[in-house]
Every structure is written in C-alpha cells, then in structure tokens.
Amino acid sequence: MLEDIRKPSLEKERAILIGIYGAETPRWLAEEYLEELDLLADTAGANTVEKILQNRPHPDPTTYIGKGKLNQLKQITTDFKADILIFDDDLSSTQVRNIEKTTGVKVLDRSGLILDIFASRAKTAASKTQVELAQLQYLLPRLTRFWTHLSRQKGGIGTKGPGETQIETDRRLIGKRISTLKDKLEKLDKQRTTQRKGREESTRVALVGYTNAGKSTLMNTLTETDVLAEDRLFATLDSTVRKLDLENHSVLLSDTVGFIRKLPHNLIESFKSTLDEVREADVLLHVVDASSRLVDDYIEVVENTLKELGIEKKRKITVFNKIDRLDPNVLIDLRKQHPDALFISAFRGIGLLKLKERLENLIEEDYVRFAYNVPMSHYKAVAFLHEVANVSREHFEGNHVTVEGTTSKEDRSRFESMLSEIEMVNE
Fold first, then answer.
1. Three-class DSSP category at 210
2. 345-382 tens-digit pLDDT
3. What is the rounded radius of gyration, in angstroms, for the C-alpha atoms of the chain?
4. 300 CB neighbour count, 10 Å cutoff
5. How is the beta sheet containing 400-408 ordered, strand by strand?
C-alpha cells in the first residue's frame, strides 16, 4: 500500500514550471503544454508561482535547459521562494541531480507528477496496487539519485510512494516487491474477470477520452447517478459501471481513467486490468472537449492510446462535449470537420437524445429477427430466449411452442448451440 513517507505540509508548495520550445514545438503550443502542467500541479496540490520556457531545439542532456539558463533558474527559484521545480518532460537521473545541486530545491518531471496524482487519488485495492507498481518501475532506474536528496525533503508532491528504508537497504527488494504486486494484480484481475462474466449478456459501452473531457459528467447525466465529477485532471481512476436504459435496450455504461499526453508507459501497463472495461466493450464513446484549443491533439492522444491497447478498430461514436462554451462559428467549423460526430453539452443536457438514438441504432445493427419452433421438452432453451431476447410473440400448439422476436447475433448463436446440445442428449 502507498503511504506518505513524510508528513505533508499544510501549506501548498510553491512550484515553478519549466518547458522548452523550438522548431518541432512552437512557442504557443509549449505555452498550452505548460497550462496543462499547471492543471496537473494544481491537482497534485501545488501553487504555480512562475512559468519558464526556454528556446532550445532539444533538451540539454545534462541540465535540460542549459547551464546558463540553469544559473538563471537558481536566482528565479530564490526570488519566488519556490519549493519545487516541475519539468514538462521526463528527466534523466543526471539531469535531476545537476538541477537539484544547482538550485537546492526538489525537482520533479512530468511522469513523476502524474504518478504522484495517481497515488493520492487511488482508492480501491486494484488502483493502489497498480499505482505502486508503476511508481516502483519509475523509481528503479532513478535510485542512484532519488534517495540521496530525500532526507532533505519535508514531504509534499513527489514524495508519496514506497517506504524509504526498504529501497535504501537493498535494490533487490524493489524487484521482489514488483513481482509481488504483479501477482496481486493477476489475482485482482481474475476477480474482475469473474465479475464481468455476470455482465456478458448486456451490451457494454465504455466512455473514453482525454482527461477532464467530461466523461463522468456525461455518465451522471445519462444514468442519473452521482459518479465523482470534478473540473480537475484524473478525477476518475477506477472504472465505474452503471446501467443505462435506452428506448428498446439496456446497456452497461462504464467510465474509466482519462488519457493524457505523455502518459507514463508504466502507468498504462499497470492499469491494463482496469482498462479491460474498455478493451471488452462492444461500443466506445469517445468524449472530446470541444472547447479546447488542442482538440485535434487530444483526439490523436486518445486514438494512439487505444492503438496501444489494441482496440483502435472497435465501433466508436465520437462525441464533442462542452459545446455550450463554444463560439457558434467554431462549432460550425467542427461540424464540417467531423460530419459523423455528435455535439453535446453533458452539463446542460444538450444533444443527449440524439446520442441515445445513435447508440440504440448501433446496438440494433447487432440484432436479428428470429422465429423458432421448439419442442416443449426443450423448456431450458425457451427460458434462455426469454432471458436474453426481446420476445414479441409466443404461440403454443401441441407439443411445440413458436417463439418470435429479436436478439443479438451472439445470443442467437448461443441459443442454437444450446438447442443442438439438448437434441444430442435426447438422442
């Protein structure tokens, strides 16, 4: 279990955010990235006091921003009385050691910050185990520098993790702990698989999207429930499943952890069991924050993450959310660029009827009409049809019953297999 290794300060830490821009990343885009980093820092509990951008084609291998800029950063850190420096890219152990030695304050990179947020927001046994595993895998190559400066820290962001003495004593203990956590996740995954088996007869719809796109708000509005929904990044870590009643069908709607740019690979690997709700869904609802300037980037991040999970070809409905925040002309342009998408406001309840209709039509594509004349002795097969199908007509004549209606192609196959097995036994 993750525990704070130092008692956290009651006051917010003062953070300076640092990034670079150049030919590949123009300044305006780097500024947007720092805005997102600011949101991450706020979610972690820090107060951003300054943002710094350095014009460089590539990060400096020893200092990230160059020795001259690093000396300036030392003075800026003193002037703003900063407690922590947060960088928008991942840093090597050498970079962290040099920056800390020069500035004298704690240094955290983007992955470390995201992992810290996950550590503070993990509530269930599964998510706590997943986060601890990701943190240990992140810390392992950084051990040479991490524990040398930790004794000087007073806690706060970046220090929520496994106990200090365990890791200092023997590096092999981390490897052993990682193996233990992987075994634990495997057991938890088997439990989750058992739980999901009870839901196999229902159509499953998963909400996916960039973090803070409004997935939880959409789930609350559609299902009239109260899943945690905050205007913060990573409000949801554990998957939540709720029943959604449509006009002719009921589906199971699941809300899962949001994706983000440069999401640490170890975190994706660790959370794959949680993301099984996405992998095993019949339909994906890709929720997009239409009000963001980086809407195209966010779509690309989600598509790439789905590809990494091997589910990019699943049936998908793209839903642009937060249209109540849009200029009408921007909305017109978005509709032209994405003619097959839906445009809604989950908060205002705009466009939800069309979303339900689109979802129902997509589900109907899986449904087929049937008419079976079944011997009365095959009552188990008839009972199965009543359980999984929409039976529109049932007529009894002699020793047979005629059953008509609609069902999914999968349930039709299951029924016909059941019928064949019964007939084989009777023979």
1. strand
2. 999 999 999 999 999 998 888 778 888 888 888 888 88
3. 26
4. 13
5. 367-375, 400-408, 390-397
194-210: pLDDT as tens digits: 655 554 557 889 999 99
- Burial of residue 168 (CB within 10 Å: 0-12, 13-18, 19+) is middle
- What is the model's pLDDT at position 425? 56
Phi, psi at 154, each rounded to 5°: -105, 20
* Global confidence as pTM: 0.75
In the block, residue with structure tokens 């550590």: 119
Residue with tokens 């190559």: 141
Distances (CA, A) of 334 to 193, 238, 296: 39, 31, 10
Question: Could you give the domains of the chain?
Answer: 3-165 (3.40.50.11060), 199-364 (3.40.50.300), 367-426 (3.30.70.240)
In this model, does residue 316 exceed pLDDT 90?
yes
CA–CA dist 336, 346 (Å, integer) = 21
Helix (H) / strand (E) element for 397: namely strand 390-397
Q: CB of 115 within 8 A of CB of 40? A: no
* DSSP one-letter string for 85-114: EEESS---HHHHHHHHHHH-SEEE-HHHHH
Please give the structure tokens belonging to residue 82: 């900063």
DSSP 352: H
C-alpha angle 11/12/18, rounded to 5°? 150
Query: Looking at per-residue confidence, does 259 or 299 come out higher?
Result: 299
Contact 108, 159 (CB under 8 A): no
Beta bridge partners of 395: 402
Residue type, 283: V
Give the helix/strand (H/E) hosting 344: none
CA distance 414 to 409: 9
pLDDT beyond 70 at 148: no
